[in-house]
């Protein structure tokens, strides 16, 4: 059954792979962007997730064009790495405001229509770093760990209404976000990954479409790693 899907940050990277995977299986897919426009073949809405009015407007446009959002993927996210002693409060807050509060804004706006429909799928894109930690990533790890508590609380609130909330925790995926890592850091990370390689964005997308499907109706509050074994034991 075709669904209406909204992927934040679906204009590039992992979000784009997720949007394309839903589109391939015949769903009606919208992506947010911040001015780049929508990739070919996808419906785009301009939206900065740090602005609740913009999030509301984006949902309203998608609802008018494609129908109520049944599957929302809170994927948009940023890093701003530096060691704890050097991290400013502004750097901490900015990352939290995008990755954690931004996901809250999106999930909250989606949930009212899902409650009315008595069906919904909320999927948060976290990171292996949320539970594993990462040097220089106090802000990022805190934001990504927060998504686990958020999904689990939503599960307790909305679980009886056919609404699931899950977390996908990618390891190191080949996108612009990991392009900025130094070769030395990349080599160090590769040594720790049992799979011995980075993943392609599409490998994350397959976990997301699975969680959104009817076959995953009894999976909620889960953290699904897509990390080549890096975070085993979480
Ligand atoms: P990219 O840097 O390639 O893309 C980030 C996306 O987020 C872009 O679409 C960007 O939009 C969007 N975005 C950032 N800030 C905002 C905002 N305030 N409002 C709306 N959109 C915003 O990242 P990835 O594709 O690599 O990452 C996607 C998600 O996966 C992130 O949440 C990231 O933390 C997570 N992740 C990534 C991993 C990796 O190895 N790459 C590993 C684990 C998790 P714009 O184009 O306008 O800048």
Automatic annotation (TrEMBL):
Query: Which BP terms in the Gene Ontology apply to this protein?
Result: fatty acid biosynthetic process
One Pfam family this chain carries? adh_short_C2
User: Which SUPFAM superfamilies does its entry note?
Assistant: NAD(P)-binding Rossmann-fold domains
The record's annotation in Gene3D superfamilies points to: NAD(P)-binding Rossmann-like Domain (3.40.50.720)
Q: Which UniProt keywords apply?
A: Oxidoreductase
Organism the protein comes from: Actinoplanes auranticolor
Signal peptide residues are none
Q: What GO terms are given for molecular function? A: oxidoreductase activity, acting on the CH-OH group of donors, NAD or NADP as acceptor; quinone binding
The gene designation is fabG_9
What's the protein called, per UniProt?
Answer: Beta-ketoacyl-ACP reductase
